[in-house]
Design goal:
By secondary structure, the chain is an alpha+beta fold. The chain has two domains: 99 residues, Hypothetical protein ph0010, domain 1 (Glycoprotein, Type 4 Pilin, 2-Layer Sandwich); 71 residues, Dna Ligase, domain 1 (2-Layer Sandwich), CATH 3.30.1490. Helices cover 27% and strands 27% of the residues. The protein is built from four helices and six strands. Strands 2-1-3-6-4-5 form a six-stranded antiparallel sheet. Helix 1 crosses helix 2. The two termini are 24 Å apart. The relative contact order is 0.17.
């Protein structure tokens, strides 16, 4: 399980994401990396947030990946840049302005008490039989929400209502990597 990443690992994972986006932009094959560390093959959830000039440009999550960390980062970086339904595909002239944030999921624990979540630190995953929504504290820090308000807002952003039946809530611990 991923607990801590060294600075060199963080830089490398950002490079993997950036290289994947560039490869798609110029219609080249994705780079293949030698997996010299076991953690690079570990199957773990990944969220990638792209920004240009501090404005959101892409935001995609893969909660339950079928591939190892490197391949998952490549897939999610490409989806964030080119297939995020809220944005048009990234253009070459935007590439240099792009900043990348990677969130690697370390642990997911079911929430029984909303007061147990820390809106300053924990991500929140909302799940029912039809959908999964995952939101990060970065999305809410500016609002100074209480734990209950955080859960309510995350539920709404996931397209659900707290009145919807069979909703499960999870606290998500992650490692954040940013350029």
């Amino acid at each position: 399980m991923i607990d801590v990443l060294q600075e060199e690992d963080k830089k490398f994972l950002l490079k993997v994401a950036r290289d994947a986006i560039w490869s798609k932009l110029v219609n080249e094959e994705l780079p293949v990396y030698y997996k010299d560390k076991e953690l690079y093959s570990e199957k773990t959830g990944v969220i990638i947030k792209l920004k240009i000039n501090e404005r959101l440009r892409g935001y995609v999550a893969k909660i339950e990946p079928e591939t190892g960390l490197l391949e998952t980062i490549q897939q999610i970086a490409i989806h964030s840049a080119f297939y995020e339904p809220r944005f048009i595909p990234l253009k070459k002239d935007e590439y240099e302005k792009l900043s990348i944030e990677i969130f690697i999921i370390k642990e997911v624990n079911e929430l029984k008490d909303f007061k147990a979540i820390n809106p300053q630190k924990d991500g929140i995953m909302i799940k029912n039989e039809f959908t999964i929504g995952l939101l990060l504290p970065d999305d809410f820090l500016e609002f100074g929400l209480t734990p209950e308000e955080y859960v309510k807002e995350a539920t709404l952003r996931a397209g659900l209502s707290q009145d919807t039946g069979n909703i499960q809530y999870f606290a998500v611990d992650f490692i954040k990597i940013e350029e």
